[in-house]
Write a structure and sequence with these properties.
The chain is mainly α and 413 residues long. The protein has 19 helices and two strands. It is 77% helix and 1% strand.
């Protein structure tokens, strides 16, 4: 019997429980959604018509999750400014280079020290380098930080990561799947990704009057269908040229956020963002089998701890170069800590290339740890910064204080 509708209904009920519990505890619902997804799935029992394995409905739930990533990034673009993003171009380039350089180097070193082969080292470094766009967006929304001064830098680094991802996946797939890589192919992938992002931002910025006219639609029904059609077409077009579909959604949001329809869009898109965004994290949990993690747990814990240190250092360096304060730079690092969809893509590529089977469970545990703790750490980023900074504060020596008092008294006289 076809149980597709019933299974989707059960999935939404579980999602509702997770979101309700997170709201009661006043923390991000990301870890709850992932954990409740892990609790069910193919390994879960079946109680009569209530099938918690979600085998039949898995493709539909996965697709709904993909829509969630698109809506999260699209809405994030609506609340941001393409003008400020372009003005921060130099800071983004420097910050992105610092962030990628530190995290990729740490990933390579960790893989080398834990005994992986050179090819497997590249895969592990990719898993530990790229942030999750969906988690980044969720953190900014949940903690109302979209208007914060560090948001432009965070978004810019996210797009910088996508250009790096295009280069990296071209290189890794060439090595893993065919045993060789083409320098021309790698450079063309990087150039195409960069040209798409920059070209779309520049053209879209000058097309604002045309877009104002194009979307002057009185019917909310027609308006939403037209916008969502553009969203899916642009995201799909980005994927065709090996750019993450989420970046396509972010770009469209940035452009439409400059139009007179931005406030209308924000109000209409919020329910879709919340619903499908929650499904994304639940669907990710469904892919993690807690009984097959094996010896990857301690390996993943070590990588997660190193990544925490790496993002904090990278955030401080990138933020300070962009003129941000210490605590704001700390927010940059912890906001970018979450790992998710991109890490899983790299792990699947490693599996397709016949690399060490341990990489799959390692990626699952690593992503689970950071996807769970990144929102929690980001929420308390200011308190954590004060705790970390406290031991390094320099106290004034009594002689210095006496000297200052003497100088002040001299001036007063």
């Amino acid at each position: 019997m076809d149980q597709l509708v019933l299974q989707v209904g059960l999935a939404l009920m579980l999602i509702a429980v997770a979101v309700w519990l997170a709201a009661k505890l006043r923390i991000s619902n990301v870890p709850f959604l992932i954990l409740i997804g892990m609790a069910v799935g193919p390994h879960a029992p079946q109680f009569g018509p209530l099938d918690f394995r979600f085998i039949e409905s898995a493709p539909l739930i996965t697709f709904m999750g993909r829509l969630g990533v698109l809506f999260l990034l699209f809405y994030l673009g609506l609340e941001s400014s393409v003008t400020r993003l372009i003005q921060a171009g130099r800071s983004i380039f420097v910050g992105g280079t610092i962030y990628i350089g530190i995290n990729f180097t740490v990933g390579l070193a960790y893989a080398y020290l834990t005994g992986f082969s050179p090819t497997e080292m590249l895969a592990v470094a990719g898993i530990t380098t790229i942030s999750s766009s969906a988690i980044v967006a969720k953190i900014l929304f949940d903690y109302r930080r979209t208007a914060n001064p560090e948001t432009e830098l965070i978004l810019g680094i996210t797009m910088y990561e996508d250009v790096f991802l295009a280069v990296y996946l071209s290189l890794l797939s060439g090595i893993v799947l065919s045993g060789a890589s083409s320098v021309i192919g790698v450079l063309s992938s990087a150039g195409l990704a960069l040209a798409f992002i920059v070209g779309f931002l520049v053209i879209g910025r000058w097309a604002t009057p045309f877009l104002n006219w194009l979307f002057r639609i009185s019917s909310n029904e027609v308006f939403l269908i037209a916008v969502f059609a553009c969203l899916l077409v642009l995201a799909g077009a980005a994927e065709l040229i090996h750019i993450a579909e989420a970046i396509g959604a972010l770009l469209l949001g940035l452009i439409l956020g400059e139009t007179e329809h931005s406030e209308r869009l924000e109000k209409l898109v919020v329910p879709f963002r919340d619903l499908f965004g929650a499904v994304f994290f639940f669907s990710f949990g469904l892919t993690v089998d807690p009984f097959s993690l094996g010896g990857a747990v301690w390996l993943a814990i070590g990588a997660a701890l190193l990544s925490l240190v790496a993002v904090v250092v990278a955030g401080q360096l990138a933020g300070r170069r962009a003129g941000l304060s210490g605590v704001t730079s700390f927010n940059v690092g912890l906001t970018l800590l979450g790992r998710g969809e991109f890490s899983i893509i790299v792990a699947k590529l490693a599996q397709a290339g016949g690399l060490l089977p341990l990489i799959q469970p390692f990626a699952a545990v690593y992503v689970l740890i950071l996807a769970t703790f990144a929102p929690l750490l980001a929420k308390e980023s200011e308190r954590i910064y004060e705790l970390v900074k406290k031991p390094f504060k320099r106290r004034r020596r009594p002689e210095s204080e006496e000297l200052v008092e003497t100088e002040v008294s001299y001036v007063d006289d």
